[in-house]
Write a structure and sequence with these properties.
It is a single chain. The model is unreliable at about 1-20 (pLDDT under 50). The chain starts with about 25 loop residues before the first helix and ends in a 10-residue tail after the last helix. By secondary structure, it is an alpha+beta fold. The chain is about 60% helix and about 15% strand. The relative contact order is 0.15. It is built from eight helices and six strands; from the N terminus they run ααββββααααββαα. The longest helix is centred in the middle third of the chain and has 68 residues, at about 120-185.
Length: about 450
């Protein structure tokens, strides 16, 4: 952390033409991406959606199943035949035979393939692809929100650095005033009460400095918690020289949130088509080979092998209007998300215009404060010369110093406000920040 109490006044605060350098947030942003639990959760959701796409794609491929079974029956079937005798008076001839064994076993392989499903497999895969893109867009929106949070926290830290320096300058002014009062008291031109008042004001200024330092420490802790790294800060607290406003004139046709909503609509439409495809029959073919002891065998026992092939058709003729109700529900949900997307775009466009308008107003106010600050600086120097010549009092010099410090603080705060507006406008525009890199 830079030594704030040794920093001189920088004239860069008074001029908008000072050079700037990019915000040093790239390293902190990289650390945030690697450590923030919200980012990690979104990455896992994307992985889950990618697995869903793979699962839906498997419907295009045939299935190969291994089968095996074993059964034991408590009784075996018996064949009993009576044959008439050719000799009168003889008992009829009887033939009795067990039809197989009590245990039955078989094993085999079966390949099956759905050759027609009314397009449900195609729509299911498209639905998962759109859901994957929606999840990715939601993850990008989450990253953009965290980037804005980190950038605004960086600005707040810089603002607190300025507040700390201003508090120190006010304390220095109070120290000089107290020293002057003590000298006046020794010469008999000031009372002890005035000296005590000066001491009280100096103590209050010291307390303000300590409080400003504590707020800076708290913001640094917040930055560390968010990004997982320390806030290094700029080499000075000259905000004009340290921050380059992010350009925000380029308004993207849609941001990540709108993109996620658009993909959600497409996923719902594909689901609706998939449900509608159930009005068509499903045709599947299967081939297989099996070997085993079927158990029921009239003339022989033992293991045999056989092959088979077949085709199966399933056609739902009436489902109690379930399909119709489901399609109507999906259509209503899709239209609702479409309306939400339109509303989100209008809100983003309105916020963007408001931020640009506010940014212009703040720039004009900042320019006016810059002129006032330059005038107050010249006035302070003139009063300081007059005080050395005995033509101005210590109170006059204190008032001039505090007035200049107050204007400098307002100018810094106004520039910070301009930077914050620029960051928010960049976020609303749907474009990435410079420290994020290109998507």
């Amino acid at each position: 952390m830079p030594n704030l109490f040794a920093l001189p006044l920088l004239a860069a605060l008074a001029g908008p033409s000072a050079p700037c350098t990019p915000q040093p947030l790239a390293a902190s942003w990289k650390s945030l991406l690697e450590t923030h639990p919200g980012i990690q959760a979104m990455d896992r959701r994307v992985e889950a959606r990618e697995a869903s796409v793979q699962e839906a794609t498997s419907g295009f491929w045939p299935r190969l199943d291994a089968t095996a079974s074993y059964q034991v029956a408590s009784e075996t079937p018996r064949l009993s035949l009576e044959m008439p005798t050719p000799v009168p008076g003889m008992a009829p001839l009887k033939i009795e035979r067990d039809m197989g064994d009590a245990d039955r076993a078989e094993a085999g392989l079966e390949a099956s393939w759905v050759v027609f499903s009314g397009g449900s497999t195609v729509h299911a895969r498209r639905r998962e692809l759109h859901s994957l893109e929606a999840t990715r867009s939601s993850a990008d929106q989450r990253r953009s929100a965290l980037a804005l949070q980190a950038a605004l926290l960086d600005v707040a830290l810089r603002a607190q650095m300025v507040d700390l320096r201003m508090a120190h300058l006010r304390r220095q002014a109070r120290v000089r005033w107290r020293t002057t009062r003590e000298a006046q008291a020794r010469s008999g031109t000031a009372t002890q009460v005035q000296v005590l008042q000066a001491l009280a004001e100096e103590a209050r200024a010291t307390a303000d400095t300590v409080q400003a330092s504590g707020r800076l420490d708290s913001l640094q802790d917040e930055f560390r918690t968010l990004t997982g790294s320390e806030w290094t800060g700029p080499g000075s607290d000259s905000l004009v020289a340290a921050i380059c406003p992010e350009p925000s004139e380029d308004f993207a046709p849609e941001d990540h949130r709108e993109g996620a909503l658009r993909e959600q609509v497409l996923a719902l439409r594909e689901t609706e088509k998939s449900v509608g495809s159930t009005r068509y029959p499903v045709v599947a073919v299967a081939v297989g080979v099996k070997t085993g002891d079927p158990g029921m065998d009239q003339f022989s026992t033992g293991w045999n092998s056989w092959g088979y092939a077949g085709i199966q058709t399933r056609w739902n003729l009436f489902d109690g209007l379930s399909r119709r109700g489901t399609m109507h529900k999906l259509d209503a949900e899709a239209r609702a998300v479409e309306s939400e997307s339109i509303e989100a775009h209008r809100d983003r466009d309105s916020r963007f215009r408001v931020l640009l308008s506010e940014g212009k107003r703040v720039e004009a106010e900042e320019a006016a404060l810059g002129v006032a600050w330059e005038a107050s600086l010249k006035a302070e120097k003139a009063i300081e010369s007059a005080h050395r010549a005995g033509a101005a009092t210590a109170d006059d010099l204190l008032d001039a110093s505090l007035g200049r410090i107050s204007l400098e603080s307002r100018l810094s705060a106004m520039h910070l406000r301009s930077v914050a507006i620029s960051l928010q406008a960049r976020f609303v525009s749907g474009r990435p920040f410079s420290f994020e890199g290109q998507p």
